[in-house]
Amino acid sequence: MPVEGVAAAGGITAGGTAVREPKQTMDSEVFMHLLVTQLRNQDPSSPMDTNEMISQTTQLASMEQLTAMAKMDEENFSLQMRIAAAALIGQTVTYTNDDGVSVTGTAKSVSYAAGVPTVNINGEDVLLDRISGVVDGAADQTTDAPKAPAATA
What we know:
The protein has helices at residues 28-40, 50-87, and strands at residues 92-96, 102-111, 118-121, 124-127, 131-135. By secondary structure, the protein is α+β, with helices and mostly antiparallel strands.
């Protein structure tokens, strides 16, 4: 019976370096590849137990659900940052600049162009996570007038 030639698994460029980068995370594709490899290389005299196969398939489904939940958590966190940044507009905020000096100013606008929202304070765009304090603009206008004593019955 003739034997066919074997080709290299990873592509080789003209320079002789491999193009393929190894996966650094365990995703459903890697998990499925491992399962198929296990099935191909199993001992024919003692094949994989059906319960073990169901267990591994369940693990794959669980992993996919956990991955989906992690992605949803990232999206929720991003949305929360956007909401928090938008709520700062009109507020007096404090941040530390690149020189380590604490700067206070009014938040004028918000940009969502970068991964972390930026807040425009006194004409300078500041990352949301660099803001260290917020003071309500309406709180600055209150007076310290004496209060009348509470009536007693």
